[in-house]
Amino acid sequence: MHVAILGATGVVGQEILSVLEQRDFPVTTLRPLASPRSAGRTVTFRGRAIAVEAAGPDSFAGMDVVLASAGATVTRELAPAIRKSGAVLIDNSSAFRMDADVPLVVPEVNPEALPAHRGVIANPNCVAIILTVAVAPIHRAVGIRRLVVSTYQSASGAGLAAMQELRSQARDVLEGREPVPRALPHPIAFNVFSHNAAIGPEGYNGEETKVMRETRKILSDPDLAITATCVRVPVLRAHTESINLTLARPLSPERARALLAQAPGVEIVDDWERNLFPMPAIASGRDAVYVGRIRRDLSQPDGMGLDLFVCGDQLRKGAALNAVQIAEAVVASRAAKVPAAPAEVAHG
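^ that's the sequence the OP posted. Answer follows.
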């Protein structure tokens, strides 16, 4: 496959490169693309340094797949050229997620949505990915009537500058200096604040609105009652979520644990004796969505309520890994039609 990475020098772009290599994705040609200010830099893939090119309308000729993590504005501007080239655009931004003709895909949850794509496939919001991997097995088994999610989102969700700011502010605080926020609106070290997306007219911030809308689309349940509260916490990477469910039919914690233990992409961490449950220290750098604190909600009668605590790496399953898994599905769909190319990497 001839693969372009749009936004190759960003934190998600770098993670995509890592995931492609680790999963031995069949890359024949790799074309790293970024803004003009990053052109000329190099990225490393399979031990080789490859020069980054400035992204433009002519950058996609001959490409099979474009993995984009350059932001909604850039992706919208370049999408017509990508479509014209014949490449499949797998977009990590919010640009096309809610378009009716664009599949919004988590491969473990709704792979059946993929064949309907018309050259663009959307990678969901990181919280929605982690959330739906955890709740989809329960939704399929007994149905979910209402979902309440509160998030503890790491600095990685705001990019490399926010991760660097967390490190530098932690040093400042420990050494007695006042932390000065730049990448984020408030100090992130030793602090917690509402997610830094803009607040809408109903009081929900943009992140919360994305999570609610995208979760309904991924689960193919437009009537699902869902509310979200998204919070930024001083963690470098991996998002954590507290999930409360109101079910359509009763489900015991034991049955829920069994369903989740068999679900693709899920690992159970639910050790009551050692008080060991999902946390960023476990999830960081790993591919699974970790689920624990599986318990009955005692405020809801007749076994209709369930609580979960979930953690997943925002840069892995919440972004790069999910995009590469979609690309793998694209490869699989073409396998019967297109002979496999030699597994070499050449600069495009």
